[in-house]
Write a structure and sequence with these properties.
Layout lengths: L2 E3 L9 H5 L10 E3 L7 H7 L4 H10 L7 H11 L2 H4 L7 E5 L2 E5 L9 H19 L3 E6 L3 H10 L5 E8 L5 H8 L6 E6 L3 H13 L1 H6 L2 E2 L6 H18 L7 E6 L4 H11 L4 E8 L4 H8 L1 E3 L22 H8 L4 H15 L1 E3 L4 H8 L3 E5 L2 H15 L5 H12 L7 E5 L7 H8 L20 E3 L3 H10 L3
Parallel strand pairs: 4-14, 5-6, 5-8, 6-7, 7-15, 9-10, 9-14, 10-13
Antiparallel strand pairs: 1-2, 3-4, 11-12
Helix pairs in contact: 3-4, 3-11, 4-6, 6-7, 6-11, 11-12, 17-18, 17-19
The structure holds pyridoxal-5'-phosphate.
């Protein structure tokens, strides 16, 4: 399997080449040349597999430059009950008839990002070891991505992590999670600014090509194809748990921000998984809901990005969205390049409202969308707790609210649980008047010693820190 750029760059690459890269050289995103189709006999065979073997089967369709035995070993090492808490890895919970919750948040940092990041950590260690290279990961986080990256990379040979976050702005639990890590290869940099400052500094460092090369700077952001393909696996796993045989269809409801999670659902559907609808849920930051309702994709300015109680979905533009538009336009790379390279930069928007392709988003690709606000979240958390005795976090509540608006008779709806409530305790207390449940292994987390360096939001100081700690 070879990979191409959504903007038409002539090079074709193998999996391990794009594994350690970010964007394609022309600014596009990498996608496989085609989506492998899974025939009914294969689907039937996969139904009985444990999660790590299902992961091996799916990844094997996309990776041709790691020997099978090593692929299998990486999957087996990643998806264990010890790391993910259950034998099923992503157990399905029935909420009521036709409505399910797929638990993706029982990994080390209690958010779904562990599902992909844990695999990425093992793939990075494998590939860097094979090449005899080192990588210094520089990132910006408002919470979930940074902790997932740190827990995936801690103690890994050949990898260091420098993670910037806005000083004092993550939830207390998220801060404790990240800053209590004592591993020598993990560096927490709390910058005295907001998340956008962190992101700007990461961009500025990455744009300094000489610095980037000298210090072997890389990223683990959500546009990484390996993260996406890892997420494809749990769509299959959820489907098998919700159905008895492969003639049935299901729908998925996905709390969305950067369009990474639901893009994996799109890939699963393109591979032939019987998915009726992909239901995209946003919070008040409704860039994507607006697109699927109107055909206009309008990125927001930083100042117009709301700070909400589902903060991991507070985005002004969706970094993975270009992948879907490329498919929507029949894989027209020239057009994708014009839209995302020129028009978006010039006008801050892409207008497909009068394009016949836009209708295909719903009719051919199965997408529908909806939006959920702070009061919707509180109401959903409350009613789910009172009626069903199930506590959901704010992001999952957004997904559940929009899922309920789009139920169809005879089609099971699977809501993806993207985080556990304990990560966002303040909103739970507001909704329920009580503290969220806390898994036993996190008792006393806030009292552990911390390892974090506070710096002004200054590119020079971040660079000096990296240079001084790069060995
Ligand atoms: C990252 C995240 C999301 C958004 O996922 P995308 O892949 O960016 O769409 C939703 N919920 C939680 C809890 C997250 O951490």
């Amino acid at each position: 399997m070879l990979y191409l750029s959504t903007r038409g760059h002539p090079d074709r690459k193998h999996f391990c080449e794009i594994l350690l890269e970010g964007l394609a050289p022309d600014g596009g995103l990498y996608l496989p040349e085609r989506y492998p189709r899974v025939d009914p006999a294969t689907l039937a065979r996969w139904r009985g597999l444990p999660y790590h073997e299902l992961a091996f089967e799916i990844l094997s369709l996309y990776i041709d430059d790691i020997p099978a035995a090593d692929r299998r070993a990486v999957c087996a090492k990643t998806y264990t009950p010890e790391v993910f808490g259950t034998r099923e890895i992503v157990p399905l919970k029935k909420l009521e008839d036709g409505l399910y919750l797929e638990a993706l948040s029982n990994g080390p940092t209690l958010a779904f990002k562990d599902m992909a990041m844990q695999l990425l950590g093992n793939l990075f260690e494998y590939e860097l070891g094979r090449r005899g290279e080192q990588l210094n990961i520089l990132g910006a986080t408002s919470g979930d991505t940074g902790s997932a990256a740190e827990y995936a990379m801690r103690g890994k040979k050949g990898v260091r992590v420098f993670m910037t976050s806005p000083h004092g702005r993550m939830s207390p639990f998220q801060q404790a999670q990240m800053f209590s890590l004592q591993d020598a290869n993990i560096h927490n940099l709390a910058l005295e600014g907001v998340f956008d400052d962190c992101q700007d500094i990461v961009k500025a460092v990455s744009n300094d090509l000489e610095f980037k090369r000298k210090y072997r700077i890389g990223t683990v952001n959500s546009i990484n194809w390996a993260r996406l393909v890892a997420q494809v696996v749990y769509y299959f796993a959820g489907y098998f748990q919700a159905t008895k045989h492969d003639s049935q269809k299901v729908s998925f409801a996905v709390p969305s921000g950067n369009f990474g999670n639901i893009c994996a659902g799109h890939v699963a559907r393109m591979m032939g998984l019987p998915v009726e609808r992909l239901v995209l849920a946003t919070n008040e930051n409704d860039v994507l809901d607006e697109f699927f309702r109107t055909g206009v994709y309008r990125v927001r300015a930083g100042a117009d990005t709301h700070e909400t109680s589902s903060p991991s979905m507070d985005i002004s533009k969706a970094s993975n969205f270009e992948r879907f538009v490329f498919d929507l336009l029949g894989r027209d790379a020239a057009r994708t390049k014009t839209l995302f390279g020129d028009e978006l930069a010039r006008n801050g928007r892409i207008d497909l409202s009068r394009d016949p392709a836009f209708k295909q988003a719903r009719e051919r690709f199965g997408f529908i969308s909806g939006k959920s606000t702070h009061s919707d979240r509180l109401a959903t958390i409350r009613s789910t707790w009172e009626r069903l005795g199930v506590m959901v976090d704010t992001h999952t509540a957004d997904g559940l609210k929009v899922a309920r608006e789009n139920l169809e008779a005879g089609v099971p709806m699977i809501v993806l649980e993207t985080a556990l409530p304990v990560k966002f305790a303040a909103a739970i207390v507001e909704a329920l008047g009580r503290e969220p449940e806390r898994p036993a292994r996190f008792e006393g987390l806030e009292r552990l010693p911390r390892r974090v360096t506070v710096l002004p939001p200054d590119v020079g100081q971040v660079k000096s820190y990296i240079a001084a700690h790069c060995g």
